[in-house]
Amino acid sequence: MIAIYQSLPALIEALLFVAGAPLTLEEICAAAGLAPDDAQLALQELQSQYEGEGRGLQVRYVAGGYQLCTKAEFAPYIENLLGKREKNTLSQAALETLAIIAYKQPITKFEIENIRGVRVDSVLNTLMEKGLIKEIGRKAVPGRPILYGTTKYFLTAFGLKDLEDLPRVDKEANPDRANKV
Amino acid sequence: MSYQVRLQNFQGPFDLLCHLIEKDKIDIYDIPIAQITREYLEYLNTWEDMDIDEASEFLLLACKLIEIKARLLLPQKQGVTPEEEIIDPREELVERLLEYKLFRRLSALLEEIARDQEKIFTRAGDDPAHWFPEGKPLEAVTLTDLTEAFRAVLQQAASVPTIPLRERMISIEEKIQELRQALPGANARLWFKDLFTKRSDRLDIIATFLALLELIHRGELKAYQANTFGDILILRCGE
Questions:
Q1: Predicted confidence (pLDDT) per residue in B106-161, tens digit
Q2: Which chain A residues touch B105 with a CB distance below 8 Å?
Q3: In this complex, which of B27, B57, B110 lies closest to A99 when CB atoms are compared?
Q4: What is the DSSP letter of A171?
């Protein structure tokens, strides 16, 4: 029994290596023929094995799944190997729009424009092309406007576990509010 | 002003307004509208090759600022009870500014975590297509799939009964015959509103009405109306 448990982290490691993309717990269980509890334990064991100094990889939980990836401190060397990666940074306009969609989804174009005070048509196209947002339905109001939301890739690209994992801003900590008598 | 900031650098009217408020260290809850409007318009004036699409968004906020100033100048309504709070015309603007500022900060946070993510590499690389099947909507779709789908749509379209649209001809003579049938013998009577069913369209109604007038003219029918806009009783005259 103990022997089996010792080999489980190795089995999951193999699965994560081949997948590349985040694997959900269900996918791991289905492939390994494991009960969720056992898979979870094995994942924890694998994660703690990687935590040590002797390893260049880590198992992170992102976008609802587990993924094998490099540790951040080796980024400069990886860039030496692969060449500086193409800077895929978003413009300020795209970031603002993405933030509004991420925190307020589902949201219509009109509602986004109301917050930003500018038209967002081209920005929405850019975000769609990058696979960060998608149409997730239509609002039940006259004109049935398209509702936008973020994609799973958005979570992965920003290293988020799920939407609850988005950074929060404490409204009360807003410096402007302190001025109010 | 010793330096000039090109308007194009601002993400929009709210961005510019936030910049002015921060620059002057203004309390956002007590914005001196006249001062901020003046500065706002000064910025607009430095904008040379104005793109009307972009400019209109900035001008809209300028109008809003002037409107707020105008409302501030109007005397407050007299006899306001203490419970009725006097609404500051600036309130809506302040709320929108605060919301905008909140998202500006959130977008900065997002950018930060995106930076951190750039240091982490995976086997899947950075190509969203690896993780995001929706990104390649036509992947794994063959030409046969498309033609099949198209055929299915065509079949579906064919199964919907189509009605050839033709101009409908309604003769008054036809309607006269119908009226005669509806009022078969001498002294037969009918309420005018009962002449029409829900299915009657405008053309039917007009033709029936003309037929009715014609029959009254010929002396075959008589019409009685008790009061203005009241229902009309139609009576078949004796032979």
A1: 999 999 888 888 888 887 554 544 444 445 555 666 778 778 888 888 777 777 66
A2: 169
A3: B110
A4: G
Residues B203 and B108 in one domain: no
Radius of gyration of chain B (CA): 37
- Of the options 1.10.10.10, 2.60.40.1930, 3.30.450.20, 3.20.20.140, the CATH number for the domain spanning A2-81: 1.10.10.10
Distance CA B89, CA B124 (A): 54
Question: To probe the interface with B, which of A153, A154, A180 has the most B CB atoms within 10 Å?
Answer: A153
State the Cα torsion A67-A71-A77-A82 to the nearest 10°: 10
**E strand or H helix that includes residue A170:** none
In this prediction, does ipTM exceed 0.85?
Answer: no
- Please give the structure tokens belonging to residue A21: 């993309």
pLDDT digits (tens, 9 = 90+) for A125-173: 999 988 899 999 999 998 899 999 999 889 988 989 999 888 887 654 4
Would you list the domain boundaries of chain A?
A: 2-81, 92-168
